[in-house]
Hints:
This protein is an alpha/beta fold. It contains nine helices and twelve strands. The chain has helices at residues 16-45, 56-67, 79-86, 109-112, 142-160, 189-202, 242-254, 256-259, 279-285; strands at residues 48-51, 72-76, 97-99, 117-120, 127-128, 134-135, 167-171, 207-212, 214-216, 224-228, 239-241, 262-269. The strands form three sheets. Strands 3-2-1-4-7-8-12-10 form an eight-stranded mixed sheet, with helices on both faces. Strands 5-6 form a two-stranded antiparallel ribbon. The longest helix is centred in the first third of the chain and has 30 residues, at 16-45. The protein is globular.
Amino acid sequence: PAQFLLRSSTRAGPGPRSTLAAMALRTAIGLVLASALLPAAAAREGPVVVSGATGKTGALVYSMLKSQQLPVRALVRNATKARDVLGCGRCDESEGIFVADVTKPETLTTAMSGAGALVIATSSIPVCDPFPNCHFPKGAEPVDVDWHGANNQLAAFARLTADNFGQVVLISSFGTTDPKQPLNRLGNVLFYKLNFEAALMASTLPFTIIKPCGLTDDAPAKAQLVTGHNDDIAVSPPVIGRGDVARVVVAALQHAYIADGLRFDLCSKKGPATSDDELPSILESARPRWSGINAGLVV
């Protein structure tokens, strides 16, 4: 199994007949290898780097990967905060904690070297005193973090893991199709997130872009998860728990043969709770119906 790299792609591929055959082969092989795919890949290609690992969502992704005994590195700005949030002891590289600043490319080299996958969970965070009187700290505005900082991470990962062709999972945001979205009044944050989505999609790396609705701290696995595209999910309220976003991120890493090339909105609604076993089906539901003709298998 370690000799195979399974990918489904929405990028240019062979004709419909050959791609349909590839789809069938991809599914058959993928189902057999799914349970072992990530551990084998992680051991062969290196750990998962989680940037923004002391943020609310990033910390959950990091903790879930750790709980599954998968090799993971936390990319953090502050070791003291890492100790408080992640529960590390020495909080240094010996424990997989890497202090860096995504706005400074030279600080990313050590964390990205030898990595097998990258989860980008960084985001610019406004300071409100009180809401809606909000601003971003100087040097940490959306253009700095969501555009330059994200590009710095992508470039460092691509450069330092060129032989591995590792997966990049981006946590972006719902609402990027509406230029009048109120959040854009805060430093054009959605504009810069959308632009980085395009940059990631134009890269040669396998990618998964998850665009969650309004984030809450609700307990995970208590709601029904729904996917969509281009802000077309009609649920009220349009929210999702950070824990559920983290679950889908981890599922995308575990089922990379399904998740590659996906860009989708993710929300929740009242209904039967989506179990961990159903997360691959959630990823499948996120693939646009028309994209199947371009699915492929790279061996």
